[in-house]
Structure formats: C-alpha cells, structure tokens
Design a protein that fits this description.
Shape: globular
Structural class: mainly alpha
Helix content: 55-70%
CATH architecture of the largest domain: Up-down Bundle
Largest sheet: none
Radius of gyration: 35 Å
Distance between the termini: 104 Å
CATH topology of the largest domain: Methane Monooxygenase Hydroxylase, Chain G, domain 1
Strand content: under 5%
C-alpha cells in the first residue's frame, strides 16, 4: 500500500516537472531563471494587449452609439452640429462675456452686430445674450444705435423672435427652460414690444445698474 502511494507521488512529481519544463520551453527560458525584467516584460505585453483589445471594443461601441444618435437627428440639428464644429466659431462664453461688457458700458457698441450675427448663426437656442442686448435696446434710442447697427429696429425684432422661439421650444436650447425662465422671456419680449427704435424722439430709460 505504501509503495503504491509512493509511486503515485513520484508520478505526480514527474508530471509537474514536465509541465514546468514545457513552460520554460514555451517562454524560451530553458535553464535560465525568470528575471524581474523578463517578468515585467511579459506582464507589460499582456497589459498592453488587453488595453488595445478593450480600446478597440470601446471605440466600436462608441461609434455605434454615435451612428445611432446621428440617425435620430433632424436635418436642422445636423446643420447646427456642423456649424458648431467650424473652427471659426467663437465659443459661447466669450460672446456672452463680451455682450455683458457692452451692456455694462465696458466694451464699444461697435461689436454688437458681429456678436449678434454669430449668436443667430451658431447659437439660435441661446436666450442669455439676447437678454443682455434687450437691456442695451431699453437704455438707448434708435438714433444712437444707428451708429453701430444698420437697422436698429430689425435688431429689436430679431431679439424678440429668438426669445419667443426659445420660450415655445421652436429651437433647441442647451438649458432646461423652466417656468421662471419663460416668465423672464415673456416680460422681456413685452418690454421690447413697447419700444420703437424707428421713433427718433424716443427717450431711452436711465440705467439703474
């Protein structure tokens, strides 16, 4: 009985030895111990290989999701998407900052036309910059604005149209339009509707801020 157990143990050792030898041959390290550098290299290859596979998988998944989103876009949204990718586009925060400074009297009115043209083209769903320009309209008359705008009255109407489009969801806005925002838009449009920049006798309001 003891001989049988000893025989089995000897067989297992031989089998294990064969496995170890075959592993050495596989990694071409026959007769040479695994060095730390060699082990690091093997694990490095395994890591980069798995990362590459995972990257390819994630990229394919992302491309599939992007294709699905693009398929659901309307023609108007696709046009806007292409516009936003144009390198000449001025970032919205820069336009908003400049419009705020114009309203505060810290920048010249000469920039109004350029900023408004960009807002209409790239950001038709914005409502904050139109609010800034609404304040400019309220505190300046048509004669003064005509020095910087070809058609101040058309400018006033365009501001109103953009605010109404945002209010009624006719354009896609990056912000969630709450009831409070709708109330602000309604009040601003109502104020602008009572102003005529074509009337040269209109006396502008005096800013209180």
């Amino acid at each position: 009985m003891g001989i049988h157990k000893e025989g089995n143990s000897s067989a297992r050792r031989k089998k294990n030895k064969k496995i170890m030898v075959s592993a050495k041959k596989f990694f071409k390290t026959q007769g040479n111990p695994f060095s730390p550098y060699m082990m690091k290299s093997y694990f490095g290859y395994m890591f980069y290989g798995s990362a590459l596979f995972g990257g390819i998988y994630n990229f394919n998944a992302y491309r599939k999701d992007a294709d699905e989103v693009n398929r659901l876009l309307t023609d108007e949204q696709r046009v806007l998407q292409k516009r936003l990718a144009e390198p000449a586009r001025t970032p919205w925060p820069v336009l908003h900052h400049n419009a705020t400074q114009i309203r505060e009297g810290k920048r010249p009115f000469d920039e109004i036309a350029k900023i408004w043209t960009e807002v209409q083209y790239y950001y038709p769903g914005d409502w904050l910059i139109p609010l800034e320009f609404a304040q400019v309209i309220k505190y300046n008359n048509g004669n003064y604005l005509k020095q910087f705008l070809d058609e101040p009255e058309a400018f006033r109407k365009e501001i109103m149209v953009q605010l109404l489009n945002v209010k009624y969801g006719k354009v896609q806005s990056l912000d969630m339009i709450t009831d409070e925002i709708r109330e602000i838009l309604t009040q601003t449009v109502d104020d602008l509707s009572k102003i005529s920049l074509a009337d040269t006798k209109t006396v502008p309001l005096t800013p209180t801020h």
